[in-house]
Every structure is written in C-alpha cells, then in structure tokens.
Amino acid sequence: MIDPAVLEELVAALPGRVSTTATDLAQYSRDQGPVLRETLPVAVVRARSVEDVQILLQWATRHDVPVVSRGAGSGVSGGAHATTGCVVLSLELMDRIVEISPDDEIAVVEPGVVNADLNAAVAQHGLMYAPDPASYRWSTIGGNVATNAGGLRCAKYGVTRDSVLALDVVLADGTLVSTGHRTFKGVAGYDLTALMTGSEGTLGVIVGITVRLRYLPQAVHTLAAFFDDFPQAAAGVLAIGRARVQPSILELLDGRTLEALDGAHGSDLRRRGGSLLLVQTDGYGAGAEADAIRGALIGLGAVISEEGSEEAERLIDLRRHSRGDEVDDLYRVGEDVAVPKSQLVPYVAALEDMARRHGVKLKVVAHAGDGNLHPTFWVERSEGPQAQERLESALDESVQRALDLGGTITGEHGVGQYKRRWLAWEQSPEVLDLQARLKQVFDPSNILNPGKAIVS
Amino acid sequence: MIDPAVLEELVAALPGRVSTTATDLAQYSRDQGPVLRETLPVAVVRARSVEDVQILLQWATRHDVPVVSRGAGSGVSGGAHATTGCVVLSLELMDRIVEISPDDEIAVVEPGVVNADLNAAVAQHGLMYAPDPASYRWSTIGGNVATNAGGLRCAKYGVTRDSVLALDVVLADGTLVSTGHRTFKGVAGYDLTALMTGSEGTLGVIVGITVRLRYLPQAVHTLAAFFDDFPQAAAGVLAIGRARVQPSILELLDGRTLEALDGAHGSDLRRRGGSLLLVQTDGYGAGAEADAIRGALIGLGAVISEEGSEEAERLIDLRRHSRGDEVDDLYRVGEDVAVPKSQLVPYVAALEDMARRHGVKLKVVAHAGDGNLHPTFWVERSEGPQAQERLESALDESVQRALDLGGTITGEHGVGQYKRRWLAWEQSPEVLDLQARLKQVFDPSNILNPGKAIVS
C-alpha cells in the first residue's frame, strides 16, 4: 500500500482532483476488457489541465508510483485496468475542443473529447473525423489515439494514426513535449507521433491532439446483402475487392451474430440469411460504386436490400452496437485478430472447427474490408473452471492460426493487459527487446502503465 | 583513411560486391541534394542479398565504419551523401518484386525496386502503389520508405508511411528483424514500421518492404486552370477545399515555374496565365468531382481547359518532371516547407517579398492539396560567394516564416544533411534529445548514416 503521507502530498498538490472513495476506486479500476486479477488503484486523479498531469507525473516519478491513464475506459484489452499500487489518471474532464480550422481541415482537441462530439462539432463545417470505433458515441479521442483505434470506416479512411498530425505529450518525468505538425505532411525527424499512437499510455500521457479532418461525403449508399452462409458472404468480400471498388464500410456478420442481434433488438435477420454483408460507399461516386458492388455480388446468391432502404442504415447502426452490451469476462472473450483478406474463408472455417473441438460457442463479425475479425468465444458461466480452460484453449488456437495465415494478434484493440501472452507469438525476441528499450528511453522508472502493451 | 587490411577483410567477405574505383566512389558520393563539403566514400558495396547487408554491417560494427545506405540516390536533402570514412551501401541490385498478392492487395519487394516498375507490375491486376514522388520513374521503394516520400497523389492517398505495412530491417549489428504485418491493420506493440519509415537510414537498413496497394481508379479527370496570378490560384485551392471535394492531385505552379517549363519544353504556358492550378480527380466519382471543382472555380477568373483534353494530362507529366533537370547546388536550392492550407497566400507573398529584399530569384510549385511548397531560390553562379550568402539568408528566412505560420521545415524530402541546421528551429531540445536517445537504442555506435536526419 501507498504511504499515506505520500498520498497526502498528491492531494495537497492537486486540490479537488484526487479521489479515494470506494466507488471511484472500483469504477476506475478497469476498462471493458477481461479482468485477469481484480485490482483497485490507490487513488483516482481527474485532471483538468496539462499542468495537473505534469504535477501528477512529477509526483509519481518522485515516489515511484505507477500511473494508468484512461479516457472513457471503453477499451477491451485491459489497457486501462488498474495495476498494483497505481494511480488511475482520468482525462475525461479535459474535454475541450480547442480549435476547429475549417480551411486547414484540422481540429485541436483535449484528450477527453468524445469521438462523436468532435464529429458533431465539425459536421457543421462539412467535415468529419474519420476513425469511428464502434464505441464512438462514448470513447474519447485520447483513448482512440492511445490504442490507435480502428473502426468501420478504416477500409477507406485509414486508422487513427492516419488522422493524427500532432500530439502534446507529458513524459514520465512531467516534461511536456510536442510532436508532429499542423500540416498534413511533415518528415522532420523521427515519427514520434506515430510511435506514441497506439502505445497505450506506456510512453507518455497524451494531453493534446491535432487531427486531420476529412470531407463529409456528398452521398452515402448502403447495401445489405444476405447470403446462405459465411463462406459465400466472404466470397462476396473478395468479389468486391476483385472489382476494385473501395467501400467505406464492409462488414461481415455470421449467422450467430445475426441471432444475437435478433435476440437483443427483436429483428428477424437470421431468418433472412445465414450471413450478412453490410456495404457502404460514400462520396461523389457512391451510387456508381454501389452499382458496381451489386454487379460483383450478382451470381453469388446474395439477396440484396432495396437501394436507399432505411433498413440498411439501421443495420449499420446495429452493427456498431453489436459489442456494446457485452462486457468481456473470463467466460466470454471477443478476439481482434486480422488476417490477409484472401484468408477470411479458411480462417473462419478453422474457427468453426476449433469451436466444435473445444466445445465452446462462437460468433464472428469482421471488418472484412481489412481482414480484421472479431470472433467471440464463450462458454456458460455455470460450466465452471473446466469450461474456462476449454475457452482459453480455443482462444490460443485461434490466435495461433491467425498468425499462421500471416495475420496479427490484434488488428485494432491493442495488446493491453489481456493479449500480452500472445505478443511473443507474433514478434521475435529481438523486436520485443527493441520495444522494451524504447520504453526505457521514455519511461526509465517504468511508471507509465506498467505491464501493458509490450513484453518487457 | 581506412586501414587497408580492414577493407581487404570486407572485400574477402563480400566477393564481387565491393568497389573502390574512382568512378564508383565519385558516382556514389552524393545524391541530388546540395553538397556542403565534397566527400568520397572509402568503398561502395552493391548488396545482392540480405546476407550481404548483414555481413557488411557486422564488419562495420566490428571496425566502427560508418555506412550510408542508398537506393537510386534521387533524394534532394543530402541524406545519401557520403560522410567521412564511410562505406556507401547501394541497394539498387536488390530489385526483385518478391510477391504480388492481388486478393490481399499487397506486394512484397526488395528495396531496390523502382517505384514505376512496381506500379507497372501491379497495374495488370488493377492495382497501384499510391505514393508517387516526382522521381517515381527512377527512385526506389527503399529510398521512398527511408525518406517517407510524398508525391502528387498524397492529397488523397497519403504518404509512403500510409502504404507501408511491414519491413525487414538489418540493424546496426547485422541482426535481421521484421516489423509490422501483412494485414492492413495491426496494433501489436509499438509502431516500429512507422518509426523506421522516414528515418533516412539512421536506425537500420531496410531490406524488405510489404506495401498495401490501392485500386487503379476506374476513371481519371484532369483540369488545368490558368489564373492571372498566384493569389487567385491559391484562392482556388481554398475554394476547392470549401466545396469539400477531394482531388487526387492538386498542384499549384507560379508564373516563373511556367516560364521555366516553357524554356525547357517549348510550351507557351506563361502567355496563358500568371499561375496554373492542375487538378486531377479519380475513381467512380471523378467526373462529378471535376464538375464540382469547375463550379467552385467559376467566378474566380480562371480559364479552365476543355474537359478530357490531352493537354491537361501532359501538364501533369510536365509538373512531375519540373525538378528533374535541376540538381541543387549551393547557388540553387529547392525548399520543401509545408504550411497549413489557409496560409498558402500569405506565405507565398512573404516569399516574394524575401526574394526582392535579398536579391535572389524565386519560383514556386506546391502540392497545394496538402500545403507542401517547393520554392526554389537561386542566384547566378557568376555573382560569387556574396550572392550565395544572400541566398542563404533568403532560405533561412523562408524556413522561419513557414514555422511561424504553423508549418514544417520539410514536408516530404527529409532532413538529410542539408536541412539539419533548421531542425532545432522546429523541434524543442527535449524532442531532439528523445530522438538522439532513440537512435542510440538502434545504433549505439552511431555507424548508420551519422550526421543525418536528426541532431545528435
């Protein structure tokens, strides 16, 4: 436990910012990822300014106290889980949109700005912030940057890294540095902005973000294509690619996901098909692209929704929410592997085989446009620890298979705490060592989110 | 000078790869950037394999010999200039396209593959490699990655970093590591791929590159809009932005650039206008986007080329070549600053004022879609050292002004050797120090392209 005098020093240095109530400690102890070992922080700091963050980190360095920073806690890999003896730094109150420059097509935000709020603010200028993780209604830009969040529109617009131009970062010792530039292009020195993006709070605390905005599309077309089964729908993904049409959204849902959506929302999706491909095109070519996609899917047996139907839009919205109600735990784990696009069908066939062999349930959704799959494996809690072991075996096998096919253990959720056990399966000892040494450069005392993101 | 026995050891270890002929030493002593001090390498190694590179670097580490790696030597910042006592490592013979996967939409190449050759090879699959530096006909993918090269199409498709998925890198001690993934998305560990991209050979030698390919556009429309003067043309850039239409190419050429093109190619561009805006749209919406752009430019006094005219295409090609014939020296320096888009007009007005005050000549082209300007300042060689000093003063002032407007010293060419004197104007001592310490992690003996890219 922390020395009460040390904590008192923090309270005195940051009046009104520090909480040690049981409610706060519990609430800020975790994100949406599976919890391996329940751990409470020693305090929660709700920063209101860059100076608050600097004061906290100077204190943490002085007393060697770990700091776990977080935005909304919407992550699903345990990257914001409390670790032993840590202070949780919440940036949710630093939620000012500092600047929107419609002509420069950039915005400057504090880390606690909610993704959807930024999008609402820039929409009146005909602009959008493209990265759209499913949690966009409540996740923060700071958290999105810390995890290099993906989303539905990445297929066309790229991931968070591709929209981040500059960062203000408080280093472990409290020093404030600025990386990057306000311009779209810039190659002065090493790309520290990209290095910070996705580093999950282990290299510094992001306190300011300059993002590139994109143009709100002039038109949007959405298609819902129902197929008999998953392999046929996945063949549709390849057919769209072979037609060389770039959708903005290309989501693949399997039959069990349709069942789950029906159960939660009273829809009748599963009755209409064994697998659903949701496609959105946008921009001046949206109509022609939708036509080309329809053409590519003809002959594959798809039943495609009427052009302009509201249902397709509603389905995109359902898809965005398809994880929302399910907090992962040790009996239900949503994966985040990615494989090269051509491997979607063999990979999902392998997943189904694994689920059968290990006696676990499986449903799969995929950001099919970039090969990023979210298989969810689960067992009944009532089955106890043995079922949990079967689940773990299935998870391990699914991750190894993705790697065998040229994939990655995490497409967009981050390694956090939960996926660290797989990192060495993907990366060589030399690469793991390089990362550990980079971490040392930024955080020699290892106080920034220790035990996350990398293996050190 | 190098100990002959040490050099003999290298020749023996890499039979047939090492040259010390005067012709080779001279030819490989520099790239296209201004030469501050003529320096010859002690040897040139033309590697044919990853093993060759590893053997060279093991030898270099053993004997503490600097290694300057290069592709085609098309860089314009002196990043590949020889430094005292160095071996130049040419990767131009490692030019195999290892793999093209049309369904995965990726290619794997050796570093010496010429950008245009990769594009030709993937075009038959309906694909393209998007980054297109003006040197694309002869620059190599390895060099493009080392400098995080930009180009004309970045406005829509991003810079080199946005197309690089994975790298094979030989570290200073000869260790081979792989970073990144074959998938479009992936967030396992720190983004070492982005860190290597643009590091100009100072962190490792890139020996293998996996790139993401994009779809060859279904249609391309090109407009050439002549304006009376530069401010009007720059107003056109903002008008296109405000119409929220994303061109794939948006190039701005001033009157003196038109004069220079006329002189070199016998055209009559300058007679037709004082400034030229070249716009290309592509994809399914290309026609509608071109119409929208035409609409945005109406009323701004532009004379716009006929739809579908061959001339507009020819002008894009001329623009791509507009630097080709001019190797920079100490009497002619092409800059590479970028400013936020809204600052294009005030910045160019400031440049013209500087040119007048310092008594130097000026012409300006800009990748206007992302605010990246290439002003070229020059004086007559016959005017001697005093003119050179005036040139230097104008350059310094132009860089400082770009920074004052929120810009960067280099949008796409890299810091190399020539721009190091400005790096500390853009980046704080803390950021410079972080970079030096990152360099130490990768290259503790400082043998990889020392004296380039960062200030250490």
State the gist of this model.
2 copies of one chain form a homodimer. By secondary structure, chain A is of the alpha+beta class.
Distance between the termini of chain A: 24 Å
Strand composition percent of chain A: 15-25%
CATH architecture descriptor of the largest domain in chain A:
2-Layer Sandwich
Secondary structure tally: strands of chain A: 18
Number of domains of chain A: 4
| Helix vs. strand class of chain A | alpha+beta
Number of helical elements of chain A: 16
From the spread of the alpha carbons, the general shape of chain A counts as globular
Question: Any idea of the CATH class of the largest domain in chain A?
Answer: Alpha Beta
- CATH topology of the largest domain in chain A: the name is Uridine Diphospho-n-acetylenolpyruvylglucosamine Reductase, domain 3
The assembly state of the depicted protein chains is homodimer
Query: Ranges of chain A with pLDDT <50 over ≥5 residues?
Result: none
Radius of gyration of chain A: 22 Å
Most extensive interface between two protein chains, with residue counts: A-B, 92 and 92 residues
**Helical proportion of chain A, percent range:** 25-40%
Biggest sheet statistics of chain A = 7 strands, antiparallel
Mean pLDDT of chain A: 95
In spatial order, strands of the major sheet of chain A run 15-12-14-13-17-18-16
